[in-house]
Specification:
The complex is a heterodimer of chains A (301) and B (459). Chain A has 301 residues and is α+β, with helices and mostly antiparallel strands. Chain A is 22% helix and 42% strand. Chain A has helices spanning 2-23, 107-112, 263-300, and strands at 32-44, 50-59, 62-65, 70-77, 83-91, 97-101, 115-122, 131-138, 140-147, 151-160, 163-166, 171-178, 181-184, 191-192, 198-202, 216-225, 229-237. Chain B is an all-alpha fold. Classes of the chains: A alpha+beta (301), B mainly alpha (459).
Chain lengths: 301, 459
């Protein structure tokens, strides 16, 4: 009989377990391609530049980020082609990215030349072979200004012969900084600098929500330029609509905060809770009564 | 032959009925025999092995939870897609199974059904144990359980989660009272028993005040009647609110007005299945063949068929109507259930948890103890997987898929820690039932004696 029970239980479980395991087929080890490392150079507000490094590899035919990759970053190369000044050793995050500032200790090398090369080197690991990549840039900066007629003017200059000279033919984007990214100010996605290194864009996005004073942030940027990398500058202007907090949030509503539930809900919920817990308390009182009767019975006997 | 029990003793009817030396008609059991049969008894070898296995599962679960507390929810395989996993499936399962207390004890009692008397305590302890672990598993699902108190401090009345916390707490207390109050007369019998018990102090603490007076019986009967009425709406609320945790969100499969009755009917079915399994085990290992008879299995089987048919009706509504329309955003979810990754599990749960039990239980022989036991297991296991299917496939098929998420986010299989904690909680619930049966009579002694006397009296 016992055997019967065990066998029957096993049959019941076997009925469900294959169904369950069928869904979760064993995963095969993924096919991995070589590690690819790419570098990007950023200069925001013409201050301290920084680098980002991106590690990815082809896994099962798709490029996927490689987290945990250890990468050494160098500023410029010596005569043998090895890295000259160590910027930092970084480890990529779960998105396969890492970033670092150029440290003050490399100021001398940084100021010595207008052109620089950044070198990224990884050592051989159990998953990937050693790899390297480099990025060359020319030091440049971007400025932004506005005019009364709501025009935005940006200017790109590069460092050449110990002075900042305008650069012609650089693609510049002018936009408004928003939460999810930059919104273009006019009809054109981007503008190209003239011989003075300047571009001019007309601000057409009237009615944009700003802060409490109506300030919005204008942005001028150069993105992924082969020579200058990524340059970005911001400027605040009161061209937006003043933000007024919506007082409706504090009214009683289903989406309201803890103490702003609708009255009908408060009434219903508390009526039910009081009704049911009142009954429970009454039942406990009955129990107490039973206990008292028991004690009285003890005294009598 | 004459029955010498004095049932009409105003002062102490319970005591008299329990201990008077009785003689019965030929074939009938005497009071002493009934009491001896129903008193809790020490575990045998099998009991010790059973307890050891359960404790082992609980310890492994506790270790897994320790790891989860130490390293965080990252030890689970829940990610941004499947943010509710096996823990919430387990929670819904526990809430469902706890409804059996209201079915067997309250609904059947209120409708004047007497055959369920030997099953009431089994049903109630299953309910108390399941609702306790439902509450615990919710805390396990929290990444920062030490912040649990914030739920009470800052919980919004508009949130179904707050309704669930409130109704679970209420149901726990009502179930506990419904377990405790009918236990009081038995406590007197346990204290008066000649057999030495290591739990005498506990019996004294819990029920030494019960003297079995007429007044005490009257108040207790009144309390039980109030409880039976109160527990029905609370039981309906608990599972309706649990269904609203899903149905008030806009997701494929959950966006359904059918969810309340669908959950309640499923809960009654799994509860009936669990009671059938417990009936068989207690009958066999506690030698209760005189008390849990073929008739009980037969009637429980009929109730189970009715509940399975009812649950199937709501399943047809739940799946056939959306499948008929096959709205584009829901297609991925429905395909995964009917013919996709989850299809083997889905059809196994439908067949094993509903259709096969209905077919087996339609026949009289299918309602014998052993087939009922097997069908009970099938219903319970099927119900557990059904809860998994309610939670996971929906989360893996959102209306608005996230972009650029790792491929692993779109697939969910619980980590060993999740399995260990879930199995540990199931073992914990069984452990509570087992230990309860060791300490207290699993079949109400006093009520059995009274029913026996009434039968004799009618004869």
């Amino acid at each position: 009989m016992k055997k019967n029970i065990i066998n029957s239980c096993a049959v019941v479980l076997l009925f469900f377990i294959p169904a369950f395991s069928g869904y979760f087929a064993a995963a095969q080890a993924p096919e991995k391609g070589p590690l690819k490392v790419s570098l990007s150079y950023f200069s925001n507000d013409n201050t301290l530049p920084y680098l980002t490094v991106n590690a990815k590899a082809k896994i099962d035919g798709k490029f996927m980020p490689v987290p945990g990759a250890e990468i050494s970053l160098y500023l410029d190369k010596d005569s043998t082609g090895k890295g000259l000044g160590l910027i930092a050793k970084v480890v990529t995050n779960e998105k396969g990215k890492a970033s670092t500032d150029i440290p003050a200790s490399l100021e001398k090398i940084w100021k010595a030349s207008a052109n620089h090369t950044f070198l990224a080197i990884t050592d051989k690991t159990k998953d990937y072979d050693a790899t390297s990549n480099e990025l060359s840039i020319v030091k440049a900066r971007i400025t932004v200004d506005t005019a009364d007629d709501k025009n935005v003017v940006a200017k790109v200059t590069e460092f050449k012969d110990n002075q900042w000279v305008p650069v012609k033919g650089v693609e510049v984007k002018i936009g408004i900084k928003r939460l999810g990214g930059d919104l273009q100010i006019g009809d054109d996605q981007s503008y190209t600098t003239d011989s003075l290194g300047m571009v001019k864009g007309e601000f057409k996005k009237t009615g944009m929500p700003g802060d409490k004073s109506g300030n919005i942030i204008l942005v001028a940027k150069v993105e992924d330029n082969d020579t200058y990398g990524n340059l970005r500058i911001e400027k605040s202007e009161p061209w937006g609509v003043k933000f007024v907090a919506n007082a409706d949030f504090f009214q009683r509503a289903l989406w309201g905060s803890q103490f702003h539930s609708p009255f009908w809900l408060v009434f219903m919920a508390y009526s039910i809770v009081i009704g049911v817990w009142g009954t429970i308390i009454y039942l406990i009182a009955l129990l107490v009564k039973i206990k008292k009767l028991g004690k009285q019975e003890d005294k009598l006997s | 032959m004459e029955n010498s029990v004095t049932l009409n003793n105003e002062k102490n009817p319970g005591f008299n009925s329990a201990f008077a030396s009785t003689k019965r008609k030929k074939g009938a059991l005497t009071d002493e025999e009934i009491i001896k049969d129903l008193l809790p008894r020490k575990f045998g070898k099998q009991g010790i092995v059973w307890i050891s296995i359960l404790v082992l599962f609980c310890l492994v679960g506790a270790f897994a939870y320790f790891r989860q507390l130490k390293y965080g929810l990252i030890v689970t395989n829940m990610r941004d897609y499947a943010s509710w996993g096996i823990y919430i499936s387990n929670f819904v399962f526990f809430v469902a199974i706890s409804l059996v207390g209201s079915l067997i004890t309250a609904v059947l009692r209120l409708t004047g059904v007497h055959w369920s008397t030997p099953l009431t305590r089994i049903a109630e302890i299953i309910a108390v144990s399941a609702i306790t672990f439902a509450a615990l598993i919710i805390i396990v699902d929290m990444g920062r359980p030490e912040r649990f108190y914030n739920l009470f401090l800052y919980g919004r009345l508009q949130s179904p989660i707050i309704w669930d916390v409130t109704v679970i707490t209420t149901y726990f207390f009502i179930s506990l009272l419904l377990l405790y109050i009918p236990l009081l007369p038995d406590m007197q019998i346990l204290l008066a028993s000649k057999e030495k018990s290591p739990f005498t102090k506990l019996y004294k603490f819990l029920g030494s005040f019960w003297k079995g007076t007429h007044m005490q019986f009257r108040i207790s009967k009144k309390a039980i009647n109030i409880l039976c009425i109160a527990i029905v709406p609370v039981a309906f609320s608990i599972h309706t609110v649990t269904s609203w945790l899903f149905a008030t969100t806009y997701r494929p499969g959950w966006d359904s007005t059918n969810f309340g009755p669908y959950f309640i009917s499923g809960a009654f079915l799994v509860g009936a299945g669990a009671v059938s399994v417990a009936m068989y085990i207690f009958r066999k290992y506690y030698n209760l063949k005189n008390y849990i008879t073929y008739e009980h299995f037969d009637k429980m089987g009929k109730v189970t068929v009715m509940l399975a048919l009812l649950y199937m009706y709501f399943n047809v509504n739940e799946f056939l109507v959306p499948a008929f329309k096959m709205k584009k955003p829901e297609q991925g979810f429905l395909d995964s259930l009917f013919v996709g990754d989850f299809a083997p599990l889905f059809w196994a749960a439908i067949l094993g948890g509903m259709i096969i039990p209905i077919i087996v239980l339609i026949f009289k022989k299918g309602r014998h103890p052993f087939p009922m036991f097997i069908v009970g297991i099938m219903i319970v296991v099927g119900a557990w997987f059904k809860r998994y299917l309610i939670v996971t496939p929906t989360l893996l098929h959102p209306f608005l898929p996230m972009h650029n998420v790792p491929a692993s986010y779109k697939h969910y299989f619980p980590s060993w820690e999740e399995w260990a904690i879930a199995m540990g909680s199931l073992a914990g619930a069984l452990l509570v039932v087992t230990i309860f049966a060791r300490i207290f009579p699993i079949i109400p002694i006093q009520e059995t004696l009274i029913e026996q006397h009434e039968k004799e009296h009618h004869k």
